[in-house]
Amino acid sequence: MTASLFTPLPLGPLELPNRVLMAPLTRSRAEEDHVPGPLMAEYYAQRASAGLIIAEATMAMEGHSSFIREPGIYSAAQVAGWRLVTEAVHNAGGRIVLQIWHGGRACHPLLNGGRQPMAPSPIAISGDEIHTPEGKKPYVVPRELADEELPAIVEGFRIAARNAILAGFDGVEVHGANGYLLDEFLRDGSNHRAGPYGGPIENRARLLLEVIDAVQTEVDLVGLRLSPLNSYNAMADSDPIGLSSWLAERLGGTGLDFLHVMRGDLLGQQQGDLLSPIRERFSGTLIANMGYSASEANAAIAAGAIDAVAFGTAFLANPDLPERLRRSAALNSPDPATFYTPGPAGYTDYPALP
What we know:
By secondary structure, the protein is an alpha/beta fold. The chain has eleven helices and 14 strands. The two termini are about 30 Å apart.
């Protein structure tokens, strides 16, 4: 039988009822101290018809905030807050995994009690500004991490994964994309260090692979998000296709359950076919993301090029996206002015089909 968006998909210990997945979307709706609250539980439960919800980027460790009011998973209060979310999603019949994350050089002292951000190399994000409590500010030059500091970061991800399971999540996605810490180590545009974590691909990928190994000791369902072409956060690599191919080959031997790949560049600066070499080399589930229509997604799944599609802004504005796609119904248009604003407006007030 030819697969489509509405063919069930086994994923680790789960059986997904469809292949319309919800991509992680930062919405800045956490409460004080980065604690998820009832509003977030309502938002995610509304979207429980997704084959799988991949919850938004969540701080694995304290002191590495890149947004205002993004959630964390390092405190007991945060674990309890996320438990409200997972219970709401499960009660609505859904499945949800948590994306765990370290902001790296995309953090700012004004968001982190004056703490200087850290990165593989002391290279600041250029050409953009960050929203802080004092308004938009330039990114600052990060502190270069010492090799001996990296085991503590690996351990932080491991504890975050354990906390995610305590909070009731069905699994974890490691955030290795979009110019945050693990991606900064991967790509040679941001990693200029020497030693065991710099230079050739196998060294630049070392921290990511150590994190995945640590997370797998705590969680049965583990995935990874990658964006080798994405130039967001001033990111670049001299050979993104080669990087993708090497990673797919190496990750295929780790028992990783899924790879979640952003297939393009949000800013349109880097081009290439990432999915074909990844598909050839990675034996797990391949989830693609960025700009898919239902017809393109169905065609790619039917051809065996990918296994599922993660939809982003379409899910933001359409809590019942799978049913709308099934019926070929009109989609609500998202309101960018409310993407990161507090409260329910543009968050939990998008209508579902009657």
